[in-house]
Design goal:
Layout lengths: L2 E5 L5 E6 H10 L3 E6 L6 E5 L1 H18 L5 E6 L5 H16 L3 E7 L8 H14 L4 E10 L2 E8 L52
Parallel strand pairs: 1-4, 5-6
Antiparallel strand pairs: 1-2, 3-4, 6-8, 7-8
Length: 207
Amino acid sequence: MPEVRCIGADGHQFGVIPTHEALRVAEEAGLDLVEVSPKAAPPVCKIMDYGKFKYEESRKKKAARKNASVIMIKEVKLRPKTDDHDIDTKVRQIRGFLQEGNKAKMVVIFRGREIVHPETGQAILQRVVQQLVDVATVEQIPTMEGRRMTMIIGPKAGLRRDGMAPAVMAPAPVRPAGPSVGPARPPGAVAGPRPPGPPASVGPGRR
């Protein structure tokens, strides 16, 4: 390319100059001439430290990958006649997936004539969801796919990675009242002066 639009390391615009002139400016500064926009006419080049530029780009990509949250969908298979023990095992397994921030795809597989009673599969799925109501939210209601009934649940909003639900402030405990003094007043009563007692009896005076 005979000429380029050159930008200095400090952002200074050299404008369109011959390529050999841009290379000379970069060499004098002890830097590199890097093509940043090859499809422009003429191509845009910037004077920079190419090694430092690549290092910074690598750091940015690593940070982006580290901060990116990857959500996986874990599949759990069930049967219409899954017994209580196996359901409890599946529930613990799904709870672990949700606590890790993943989703769970529950699949009920029908065999033979079981397919004529899809309500049995719905009952199994509903039973599992009821046991996970504290950590799960339904994202896809049960749907039939051939001989498979599928349902997807995800972690409830605000669920921490350790599986704890969002903290809720408990009401302050009410302290029991101390021993009452005197008869209890009815609600709304206002304390007032005590009524005068009966007059003290006076014996016959001495003559």
